[in-house]
Specification:
single chain, 251 residues, alpha/beta, Nucleotidyltransferase, domain 5, 2 domains, six-stranded mixed β-sheet, 7 helices, 34% helix, ATPase_NBD
């Protein structure tokens, strides 16, 4: 059994797969120094032989999980690093290492599952959008996610204290709560729509597949005015593709 982990800023998503790649269980944990202790009892009955992880979280998260795996299972946690090229996909960054490994894995997995023309959206603490045209990774953008937008208004204004509920539809609002909710969620829809249109132009009219992952994927997807696919474990799927580039936490 192989343990796969995707450590973000707020959550650590994990799953166990067998030697054929079939999912045998999984879940999510808080992304902090307690992650290893919280994960250990969930894996007690698993016959783990390997573990691989992508992380944009604090190093203490990987350290916590790595120590637990060595202590309880005698295996080493290996971290995925970004490459200049993988499976024919070229990293567009001049400084290759500056691209987030989670973004890289999401694009690798989207290309495998959905083809060479994709708009890949990860809706977490930050919203990231990656553009893939004719098998060429053009790059992407990073913006505050839904929760960060609500927190900014809540903490930095005196009278706009609104919870982050999703509106049923995006329209001109007639009360403050609805105005904020439509503004925040609508800004995400507008951002995705803009880059979808840009990718459509770059691809000479080829309709890109819009693929969404991350904690807000299902809710945000319900507001998009075009076809899309919600792929919850897209980043985890990228781990197997990038497995030749994994390296030890201790390196």
């Amino acid at each position: 059994m192989i343990l796969e982990l995707d450590a973000g800023n707020t959550r650590v998503k994990w799953r166990v797969i067998d030697e054929l790649g079939k999912r045998r269980g999984g879940g999510a944990l808080v992304s902090d120094a307690t992650a290893g202790d919280m994960l250990e009892p969930l894996l007690a009955a698993r016959n783990l032989t390997a573990a691989r992880m992508v992380s944009v979280a604090s190093p203490v998260v990987a350290q916590s999980i790595g120590f637990m795996l060595q202590r309880s299972f005698g295996i080493e946690l290996r971290l995925v690093a970004v490459q200049a090229e993988c499976n024919g996909l070229v990293n567009p960054y001049q400084n290759v290492s500056k691209l987030g490994a989670d973004r890289w894995l999401a694009v690798l997995a989207a290309r495998k599952h959905y083809g060479d023309d994709c708009l890949v959206v990860d809706c977490g603490s930050a919203t990231t959008i990656e553009m893939l045209s004719a098998g060429r990774y053009l790059g992407g953008v990073i913006a505050p996610g839904v929760s960060l937008m609500f927190k900014a208004l809540y903490s930095d204004t005196h009278q706009v204290k609104v919870l982050g509920e999703r509106p049923q539809e995006l329209d001109a609002a007639k009360d403050t709560d609805s105005a904020v909710q439509c503004g925040v969620w609508g800004s995400q829809v507008g951002l995705i729509s803009y880059y979808r249109e840009l990718l459509l132009q770059r691809g000479a009219g080829v309709e890109p597949r819009v693929v969404i992952c991350g904690g807000d994927a299902s809710q945000l997807g319900g507001l998009l005015p075009f076809k899309h696919a919600v792929h919850e474990e897209l980043v985890l799927d990228g781990l197997a593709i990038a497995s030749p580039i994994i390296q030890s936490v201790a390196d």
